[in-house]
Amino acid sequence: MLADAYIIRNTTMASSTLRSLGVLTSGGDAPGMNAAIRAVVRGAIFHGLKVTGIKRGYQGLVDDEMESMDSHSVSNIIQLGGTILKTARCEAFVTPEGRRKAYENLCARGIDALVVIGGDGTFAGAREFGSEFDFPVAGIPGTIDNDICGTDYTIGYDTALNTIVEAVDKIRDTASAHNRLFFIEVMGRNAGFLTLHGGIATGAEAIMVPELTNDYEQLEAFLENAHKQHKTSSIVLVAEGDQVGGALKIAEQAQKDHPEYDVRVTILGHIQRGGSPTADDRINAGRLGVSAVEALLAGKRDIMVGLMNGRIVHHPFSHSKKDRRPLDPQLLELIKILSI
Ligand code: F6P
C-alpha cells in the first residue's frame, strides 16, 4: 500500500493546483468512518493541504457548517464508531438551489475539492454536484451494506458482520436450549450481503434476501425437511428488505404454515451500525482515505476509491451506480450445502 502511495506522490504532486479540501460523511453512519476521516485529514496535511471538516453531510455544505481541521482534530478517533463530523440525509442538496448554495459556501471558504464518505446516495449527490459546477470530488465507500458496484468492500461492513455473528451465536444458545426456530432480521434495505455472509459465518440453516424471488418456497422446503429429520432448532437470517417482508411477517406466515415449530423473532436493528471498528475496517479506511486525497492531487475527479481483490481501484461515480452489485451465486449455494 505504501508503495502505491509513494508512486502517486512522486509522479503527481508537483503539478497539482489543489490547496484546500473539504471532507464530509453522509447517509447512514458506518463503523470506520472516523478512521477514514482521520486518514483524509492526515493524508491531506502530509501533502501540505488545508482541510475543512463539513458537519452533517451535504446539509453542512448548504448551511455553511464547517470548521478547519488539523492533525489533533482527529486524535484518538480511530477506535470510535459513528462519525465525529455527524451525518445526515439532506433534502436541500437534491435541489439545484441547495447545490448552488453549497457551491457558493465552498468558494467563499476557498475549498478546491471534496472527499465524501458514504453510500450510493452520497455518490449520486457527488456526481450531480461535481458535473454541475465542474468541482473535483472523490468518494470513499462507507456503508454497512457493502452494496456498491466497483468495490468489493465498503467501510463498516466488516464490523457490522462481526456484530451479527456475535449476536446470532448468542441467540443460537437459547434457540438450541428450547428447540426453537428463530427468525433474525439483519439490516439491508436493498441488499443481502450482510445476511448471506452472516448466514455462512453463523451456520444459519436458511437465509432470505431481497435479491431472491423464491426464497419463501426455499424456506418451506427446508422447514419440511428439517422437521422430517427431527432437527431441533434452526436459525433463519432475514434481510430487512426481503421481498416477502421483514422477519416478523415471515415468522408469522411460517408459524401459520408450520404449527409444529416454536417460532421466535429477533430484530438486530441499529446495533449493527455502531461499535468500535474491526482491524480490517480501520486499515482499509486508512488506505482509502489517503488514496482519495492522492487521487485528487493527481488531478482525478468524480471518482470512487474502492478495493478490488485487495488492491486500491479508482472508478468513475457512474460505474458505482451502474448495476446492483450481485450476490455470489456460489455462496448462495454454499448455505444450502452447509445446512443439510
Ligand atoms: O444504509 C445502511 C442501512 O443500515 C440500511 O441497511 C438500512 O435500511 C438503513 O441504513 C437504515 O437507516 P436509517 O435508520 O438511518 O434510516
Describe this structure in words.
With 340 residues, the protein is α/β, with parallel strands linked by helices. The chain has 2 domains: 199 residues, Rossmann fold (3-Layer(aba) Sandwich), CATH 3.40.50.450; 117 residues, Phosphofructokinase domain (Rossmann fold, 3-Layer(aba) Sandwich). The protein has 12 helices and 11 strands. A 7-stranded mixed beta sheet has the order 3-2-1-4-5-10-11, with helices on both faces. Helix 1 packs parallel to helix 10, helix 2 runs parallel beside helix 10 and helix 6 crosses helix 7. It is elongated and about 70 Å long. The protein starts with a helix and ends with a helix. The N terminus is likely disordered. Bound molecules: 6-O-phosphono-beta-D-fructofuranose (F6P).
Biggest sheet, strands in spatial order? 3-2-1-4-5-10-11
Assigned CATH class of the largest domain: Alpha Beta
Quote the average pLDDT: 93
Report the β-strand fraction as a percent range.
15-25%
Give the tally of structural domains. Answer: 2
Topology:
Layout: H1 2-12, E1 20-25, H2 33-46, E2 50-54, H3 58-62, E3 66-69, H4 96-108, E4 113-118, H5 120-133, E5 137-141, H6 157-178, E6 181-186, H7 193-202, E7 206-208, H8 215-228, E8 234-239, H9 247-257, E9 263-267, H10 279-297, E10 303-308, E11 311-316, H11 317-321, H12 329-338
Bound molecules: 6-O-phosphono-beta-D-fructofuranose.
Residues 28, 119, 143-145, 187-189, 240, 273 line the site of 6-O-phosphono-beta-D-fructofuranose (F6P).
